[in-house]
What does this fold into?
Amino acid sequence: MNPRVKKIVKNVLVERAVSESPVVSALRERLPDASFNFVDKVPESSRKIPGLLEVVHFKGRFWRSCPGTKIYECCGYQIVHIGTQCSLDCTYCILQSYFESPNLRIFGNTEDLLAEVQAVPRSSPQKLFRAGTGEFTDSLLLDPWTGLSEHLVPLFARIPNAVLELKTKTDHVTQLEKLNHGGQTLVSWSLNADDVIRSEEPRSAPLKARLRAAQRCADWGYFLGFHFDPMIDYPGWREGYRRTLHALFDAVDPSRVVWISLGAFRFMPELKSIIQSRHPQSRIVTGEFIRGLDGKMRYFRDIRVALYTLMVDEIRTWDPSLTVYLCMEGPWVWKRVFGFEPSERGGLPAMLDQAVRDRMGVGISSRARGAKNAAG
Ligand code: SF4
It folds into this structure.
């Protein structure tokens, strides 16, 4: 586990309305050296205060559909909103442009969050929900101290039509070992070429540590996911990504992997100057980009196709049936990379639902699930 993270939380500012919540109790017990202060309302500030964690009473919706876009293939993902910001400080992180609340923040009204998680899938029992907490923060960055997964993972195990994805760049998994996950949580890692990890994600866990953590989760019966996003076009990318894929499949059995996503680097134009001033050593925004239909800057199509094709060809040699999908790409790129577009297979959400059914056995009848488990 990365001890630097523990040091990153030195002060905890808690809104009184959530002072009795389970996450605050867990934080007080597990961060004995941190100082705790209680206020009626955590002030909005545009100043980033190192070492500060804010615990607020969140009044918005915890469960929401990923906004996606109508222009590119959307995966129909559901977001379980647990907090905002991240101290891993990857150079390309979109959260750097969220100026209103730049500090690490979690939501303390855990009971409200859990109630919503229970209610939404129940309201549409015929639908399969793929939900994740890693949209506005890293799912496991603070988890050893907040204990949130100790509530969420067993809860998802009791929801027949939903799976939870915990997405991380850390190796903070020890707390997951003893949880009753019921095969309905997949732990997933964002991976990259080692050179990119070292230059653009220096505060995250190294590749080896991420894969070791994945191995441990697989040993505890969790399913796994991997996300190569953002893929970076840099000199030596072919070898770099190949090496990561080899390390990945040396570490884990492909049959435990539910999906692998691929997404080439893209960014809103306003992020460029932020990256250049906050991470002057980074070269990722210096290449040639075109503006996509969603307004984001992206690599030329041929470069994206080359990045994806290499990955897909390599992955297929390890497991031809593993679900690989593209993030925010249109049908033309899909066709070039895979030879088909999602609409020919019922759309991307249907393809990912099928991966959940096939690999995790969730969303199929309990009889079929029993037969599947018996078959191993
Ligand atoms: S781990 Fe994710 S959320 Fe955290 S800084 Fe990196 S890109 Fe941003």
Summary: Residues 86, 88-90, 93, 95, 137-138, 169, 204 surround iron/sulfur cluster (CB under 6 Å). The radius of gyration is 20 Å. The first strand starts at residue 11 and ends at 15. The chain has a mean pLDDT of 93.
